[in-house]
Amino acid sequence: MMLPSPRTRYAVIGNPIAHSKSPWIHARFAEQTGEPITYEAILAPVDGFAAQVEAFFASGGGGLNVTVPFKLQAFELARANLSPRARAAGAVNTLWMQDGALHGCNTDGVGLLNDLRRLGARLAGARVLVAGAGGAARGILLPLIEAGCASIDIANRTPSRAQELAAAFSASAGAVMRGGSYADLPADGHWDLVINATASSLDDEAPPLPAGAYAPGGLAYDLMYAARPTAFMRQAAADGAAAVADGLGMLVEQAAESFFIWRGVRPDPGPVLTALRTSL
Ligand code: NAP
Fold first, then answer.
1. CATH code, 110-246
2. Digit-coded pLDDT (tens) for 20-57
3. CATH class belonging to 9-106+250-279
4. Nearest-atom index, ligand 1, CA of 108
5. How far is CA 22 from each of CA 9, 90, 197, rounded to the nearest angstrom?
6. Helices 159-170 + 135-146 axis angle, to 10
7. Residues having CB within 6 Å of any atom of ligand 1
């Protein structure tokens, strides 16, 4: 059993950071669980991440969430004490001190998996398409493989990055891994799950997926979230996806996993997600 941490100060660190929902989410988790924590947002200079992290923990900080553009630097800082999830993702979004040493984990992938389960997705034996081959795509591959997906196709604007990702995970995978361009995708893929891990929704664009992408009951999941359906979600609905979802649930779930790592107490993400959705 974990002892309650005497450190009670937590934060999210990034640049930019003003938009972050993490302080609001963790405040709700603290209310819900009665854990006596504070949680703030820290804007780090682009060239000053390591110094900010060192100062935070030297002044008694308990844990940090790390966001754009510092997840790779966080990985390097915690290199001596990485979780298997962080190693597979090649990036860290959760830092904490343990026995005087900095530790790092990546909770994005497990956050996605928990949200997919909340949505009723069946992953064992599923045929999955991941659009995008950046940091977020890398972070979700191991959890998808561990969940028993039968095959994972990765398509990317820069095909070599998709090929590299597929090759990097194929050795350890029970799933069949393929990587390439969007043009390489079969015209009628019939995927059970299509995940948009590109940043295209930021430009209100959808990745160029072939028509007929969804199997009966197929789910479309955009890692990005917004007040309205994203371009990818609209594309999926028009292409016959049975269900579409954005990444707000993943955001809350990854935060819940970080909270659990830090405090040893698991908050209930459901009511927090409902309230956050209403506030968008
Ligand atoms: P990243 O490392 O910068 O990778 C961006 C990816 O998007 C690359 O594969 C890139 O292709 C592709 N891309 C960018 N613009 C595109 C366009 N117009 N059309 C097609 N592909 C495009 O970013 P990331 O960290 O992986 O983040 C990706 C998305 O995941 C972001 O929207 C982010 O907000 C979201 N995310 C959500 C959560 C959550 O909790 N919900 C957590 C993490 C990330 P190239 O390789 O060809 O450049």
1. 3.40.50.720
2. 999 999 999 999 999 999 999 999 999 999 999 999 99
3. alpha beta
4. 42
5. 14, 22, 20
6. 30
7. 108, 132-137, 156-158, 161, 197-203, 205, 207, 223-225, 247, 250-251, 254
pLDDT digits (tens, 9 = 90+) for 63-122: 999 999 999 999 999 999 999 999 999 999 999 999 999 999 999 999 999 999 999 999
Choose the residue to mutate in 223, 233, 235, 258 for probing ligand 1, maximizing ligand atoms within 8 Å of C-beta.
Answer: 223
User: Domain extents for the chain?
Assistant: 9-106+250-279, 110-246
Stated pTM of the model? 0.94
Residue to mutate (ligand 1; options 157, 198, 254, 258; most atoms within 8 A of CB):
198
Same CATH fold, 110-246 and 9-106+250-279?
A: yes
Catalytic residues: 71
**Contact, 30 vs 39, CB < 8 A?**
yes
